[in-house]
Specification:
Blueprint: H1 5-15, E1 19-25, E2 28-35, E3 41-42, H2 47-55, E4 59-60, E5 68-69, H3 71-76
Antiparallel strand pairs: 1-2, 2-3, 4-5
InterPro entries: YjhX_toxin
Length: about 80
């Protein structure tokens, strides 16, 4: 699967235990914020990146919870020894 560098960074953070919190306006998601497992905010996660990951079914949300990585997303992310932000 062809995944861009920013998408890979977001997936890597999600694979390490991060989550994507979102807010809705008129039923549509209009703002997303990606948090690492340490509570830091990842600035690479934009609404466009979020839409690409969601359309490829690499992230999902269950019962209104924050978005997390799926099994497909975890298998498609490239492993990295050290992730620089």
């Amino acid at each position: 699967m062809n995944i861009s560098k920013n998408d890979q960074r977001v997936l890597h953070v999600l694979a390490l235990g991060g989550e994507i919190q979102y807010s809705r306006e008129n039923g549509k998601i209009h703002e997303v914020i990606c948090y690492t497992n340490d509570g830091l905010v990842l600035s690479n996660c934009t609404l466009d990146v979020f839409k690409r990951l969601k359309s490829k079914k690499l992230i999902s949300s269950k019962k209104g919870q924050p978005y997390r990585i799926t099994r497909l997303g975890a298998s498609s992310v490239r492993s990295q020894m050290f992730q620089r932000f």
